[in-house]
Specification:
This is Glutaminase. GO terms for molecular function: glutaminase activity. It is a single chain. The chain contains 13 helices and nine strands. The chain is of the alpha+beta class. It has two domains: 163 residues, 3-Layer(aba) Sandwich (Beta-lactamase); 133 residues, Probable Glutaminase Ybgj, Chain: A, domain 2 (Orthogonal Bundle). The strands form three sheets. The chain has a five-stranded antiparallel beta sheet. Helix 5 crosses helix 9 and helix 7 crosses helix 9. The chain starts with 6 loop residues before the first helix and ends in a 5-residue tail after the last helix. The structure holds glutamine (GLN). The site of glutamine has 11 residues, from loops.
Length: 310
């Protein structure tokens, strides 16, 4: 039987998690993110039959941050192929925080462990086709437009600038990788592309639709168009399981058990085969950098509908 979420369910879940909005901390290392209101919480579910429900602040937009790593990976894989991409970035979880530089030095030859940590994501963004940052960002946006079926989506210039001006650690990762020939070209242009990619701005239902395309094996639910080849969509979802929730991916797999990717804005995108796409949002984060409210919502959803893939 097809598992479905209805309006009543999402309304009830959002009411239930309101008590958690005071827990955790809104990210402030990107100064512009600090302005986010911790009460702005939302959930969106996009079923594979095209039906979509949402509750909470569904009109609110937010930046996708690290969720963009999944999209950049899909695009780089389509541009360059699996062999090229995985010659430059690994496939193993790191067990370290997303911005850690430690393993870059101890892995020999130096290579970021996976595309979901910042080092790996920077290397992946470096592989996206395009002569200029604008061209690369434009291609990423077109990809998002296709997946959301909404051509109005852009990026938040203020948040992109704010991160670009303060991305000392990401610059360090990039310089280290350039020294070791993992990446090539201008570091400033790479950071420009990366910070804009992280600042892509969506609402909860748009994010849920992106999750649904991955759940639907890369195919658009309405048009039937194969946006991402099936095998590449599968690779992206596998990374979401093994590395999507940073160094909390193991406990998340036990607690929730769905392919998911989170971002420091407080958004999480999930993809469940034969079910659909899930998006949750709540700016306050736990100590691993995952949305406190988002975790509660995903746990509730997964247990009520028995969505764990394990
Ligand atoms: N975890 C995240 O969402 C990190 C993304 C953020 N733009 C960064 O690179 O720091």
């Amino acid at each position: 039987m097809q598992k479905k979420v209805n309006q009543e369910m999402v309304d009830e879940w959002i009411e239930h998690v309101r008590t958690f909005t005071q827990l955790g901390k809104v990210a402030d290392y990107i100064p512009a993110l600090e302005k986010q209101d911790r009460e702005n919480i939302a959930i969106g579910i996009y079923h594979l039959d095209g039906e979509c429900v949402g509750a909470g602040k569904i009109q609110n937009t937010f930046t996708i941050q690290s969720i963009s790593k999944v999209l950049a990976l899909a695009l780089a894989l389509m541009d360059q192929g699996e062999d090229y991409v995985f010659a430059r970035v690994g496939k193993e979880p790191s067990g370290d925080p997303f911005h850690s530089i430690a393993k870059l030095e101890t892995t020999n030859p130096s290579k970021p462990l996976n595309p979901m940590i910042n080092a790996g994501a920077l290397a992946v963004t470096n592989m996206i086709e395009g002569d200029t940052p604008d061209e690369k960002v434009g291609r990423l946006l077109s990809f998002v437009h296709e997946m959301t079926n909404d051509h109005s989506i852009g990026y938040d210039q203020e948040i992109a600038n704010s991160e670009f001006e303060t991305a000392y650690l990401n610059r360090s990762l990039a310089f280290f990788m350039k020294q070791h020939h993992v990446i090539e070209g201008s570091i400033e242009e790479l950071l420009d592309t990366y910070t804009k990619q992280c600042a892509i701005e969506v609402n909860i239902k748009q994010l849920a639709r992106i999750g649904a395309v991955f759940a639907n094996e890369g195919k658009d639910m309405e048009s039937g168009r194969q946006i991402i080849p099936k095998q590449l969509a599968r690779i992206c979802k596998t990374f979401m399981v093994t590395c999507g929730m940073y160094d909390a991916s193991g406990s998340f797999a036990i607690r929730v058990g769905i392919p998911a990717k989170s971002g420091v804005s407080g958004a999480v995108m999930g993809s469940v085969k034969d079910f659909g796409g899930i998006a949750v949002f709540g700016p306050a984060l736990d100590e691993k950098g995952n949305s406190v409210v988002g975790m509660q919502l995903l746990e509730m959803l997964s247990s009520r509908l028995e969505l764990s893939i394990f």
